[in-house]
């Protein structure tokens, strides 16, 4: 595991600490002709050698990471458009981590047991995370959709696209984490914070139906997250 952490730290330092914005802009503009792209790869190589103490034993893994990193970054600059910038960022990072995992397995495959990773506790955690995000969102929308008092006409103040969905995701994930680590006070703090933020909107609208709609949605969201957290706390330990 120490080897994986060293490889991960090298990646995090190379991609997020020692990569100026000017380098990113330069390679977006010049692509394969960008000297900053090669400098970026050089920084990664240097960090890997330093953290692995220049041990020649790991040269194969270092080459795998460096070559794959170059090809992934190069592919990204050619594929990236304004509307694909965000998704390509996550795809880019996922691919880098995948090759870091491959490099780790070159040396630690004997010590890595996949069956130990996919144990009951971790499988339950995955199931709970899926339920508390996407599944709960669909359940809540299905229950309260018939009462939606919000008119579909355009208004001067438009909300961000899918903002409510992602706020709900984060809200339930935080509640789940608080319960999983037995910090119930955090749930109360989150409920109080949400009440404060919502108070102004509900007061300004002077709409009783909207207030009831928001209250039902909030209680359902908190209830499902708390229930999921309790299930994991009971069966996941």
From TrEMBL:
Keyword Ribonucleoprotein attached: no
Keyword Nucleus attributed: no
Membrane-traversing stretches: 35-52, 58-75, 87-107, 123-144, 173-193, 213-232
Lineage top rank: taxon: Bacteria
InterPro entries linked to this entry: Phage_phiKZ_Orf197 (IPR021737)
Keywords associated with the record: Membrane, Transmembrane, Transmembrane helix
Coiled coil: none
Protein name: DUF3307 domain-containing protein
Organism, as annotated: Tenacibaculum pelagium
């Amino acid at each position: 595991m120490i080897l994986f952490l060293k490889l991960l730290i090298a990646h995090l330092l190379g991609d997020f600490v020692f990569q100026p914005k000017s380098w990113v802009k330069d390679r977006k503009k010049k692509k394969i002709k960008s000297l900053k792209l090669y400098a970026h790869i050089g920084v990664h190589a240097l960090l890997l050698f330093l953290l692995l103490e220049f041990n020649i034993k790991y040269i194969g893994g270092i080459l795998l990471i460096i070559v794959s990193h170059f090809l992934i970054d190069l592919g990204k600059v050619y594929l990236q458009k304004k509307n694909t910038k965000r998704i390509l960022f996550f795809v880019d990072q996922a691919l880098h981590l995948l090759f870091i995992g491959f490099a780790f397995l070159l040396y630690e495959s004997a010590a890595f047991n996949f069956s130990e990773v996919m144990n009951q506790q971790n499988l339950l955690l995955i199931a709970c995370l899926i339920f508390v995000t996407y599944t709960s969102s669909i359940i809540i929308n299905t229950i309260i959709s018939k009462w939606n008092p919000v008119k579909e006409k355009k208004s001067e103040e438009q909300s961000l696209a899918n903002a409510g969905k992602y706020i709900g995701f984060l809200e339930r994930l935080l509640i789940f984490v608080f319960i999983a680590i037995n910090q119930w006070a955090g749930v109360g703090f989150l409920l109080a914070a949400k009440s404060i933020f919502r108070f102004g909107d509900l007061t300004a609208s002077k709409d009783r139906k909207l207030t009831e709609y928001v209250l039902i949605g909030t209680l359902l969201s908190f209830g499902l997250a708390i229930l999921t957290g309790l299930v994991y706390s009971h069966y996941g330990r």
